[in-house]
Amino acid sequence: MNKITRLAMVGIASVGLMATMNSGASAAPEIKVGPAAAQEWGGGWSDVRDVSIREKPSTTARKVGTLKKGKIVKCWVAGCSGTHNGGAYKCSSSSPTEKDWHEVRWNGKKAWAASRCLEWGRVE
Length: 124
Description:
eight-stranded antiparallel sheet; 2 helices; about 20% helix; single chain; about 30% strand; alpha+beta
C-alpha cells in the first residue's frame, strides 16, 4: 500500500469518526486505553528510511531497536494521540530540526520514535 493510499484511508476513517462523534448518539463509544489499545488504534511507518527506536525521547538515549523501512510500529496509547517534546533530531540532512516524539510499543515495552520521521495513522 503506497503512502497516498494510506493517507486517504486515514482521512476517510477520520471523517467517519467525526460523523459518529457528531451524530448526537446518546451513548459514548467505548474507547480502550493502555497497552492493549496500542494494537488496535494505530502506529507509525516509513516507506523512506529505517528509523531508530529509543529508550527515551532523545537521540542521546539508548537505542533499543530499528524500525525497518516499510514496517509498522504500534503506538503505546490509543489513537497515537499526542506527541512529547524531547531531544532535537533531523530525519535527514536536509530536513528541519524537530523535537516531537511518539510513545511506541517495542518488544512489549514503552519506547520512543521521532514523530516527524514516520507517518502516523490507523493500522491493522
